[in-house]
Amino acid sequence: MAPWTLWRGCQRVVGWVPVLFIFFVVGWSYYAYVVKLCVYTISKDENDTAKDKSGKAVVYLVAFHLFFVMFVWSYGMTIFTSPATPSKEFYLSSSEKERYEKEFSQERQQEILRRVARDLPIDTTSASKAIRYCEKCQLIKPDRAHHCSACDACILKMDHHCPWVNNCVGFSNYKFFLLFLLYSLSYCLFVATTVLEYFIKFWTLCRRKSTENCPKNDLADPHVKFHVLFLFFVSSMFFISILSLFSYHCWLVGKNKTTIESFRSPTFSYGTDGNGFSLGYAKNWRQVFGDEKKYWLLPIFSSLGDGCSFPTRLVGMDPEQASAANQSEYARRSKLQR
Fold first, then answer.
1. What is the pLDDT of residues 181-199, one digit of tens each?
2. Which one, 18, 20, 183, 267, has the greatest CB density within 10 A?
3. Which member of 148, 162, 188, 308 is catalytic?
4. Any catalytic annotation for residue 162?
5. Cβ atoms of residues 287 and 243 within 8 Å
């Protein structure tokens, strides 16, 4: 077996470790909430009547399973949806590839690529105004596509490679990724708020130096206390950490940017423009979630377009108008920065 093949195999195996960790935490949280909280703790709470206890447990369990199912569904779709790759039209033909490889001059190679790119829906170039070509995949990169070294492929509208889903987040699963963050937040918030009452109770009991004055019925099983206390800490910690990430991606969607584009703005024929794909807040959201609102909160693909071409905010303008608009935009930003 070649060393490179062995290395790629090891990478694929190790890549599943963060995913297995998440599944372990989620599985434990399910056990801790359903069994330790709803079955053992709430059912034995003497501050409520039997009717109140059963009603409370049922409400908690129904709501919990709703958040749990949506979280697992969206997480699974993010993991197992294959990243979209460029269509065949972006690959060089055998004759074009042969001519390209025979040329040693970069200028002549670019001439070959420009002739091919004339018939392709491409609006962006590299920072040096060259056609974006992937030497590994041997294709002309569509707008917003980038090569992922972890996946060893060019990914359409690549946002980033996420180790927590062991997959590239791009055009085909970006909506699923956003819903995964949303339902992660909802799941953690629901667990933390419903566990808080019992967390305070058990934490108070744990801090007492003596149990002589404590009613014996209030002394929960140590294992139950551990699960309930730890459940609150873990859900709160994950909620805080995911909140910042979700907020950042909401901002990106509103601006119609990817994580890569937020650090390196795309270059158009008229120059670099960080907002080149922005169509306005509402249209930007529809680019990701689609036109049919009934699908917005479901992990079902509904994004607009084919991932190979995207509408731009300067569509319909000639190059001179676009350049003028871009310059006025930069002038406005420089005034604001002053």
1. 999 999 999 999 999 988 8
2. 183
3. 162
4. yes
5. no
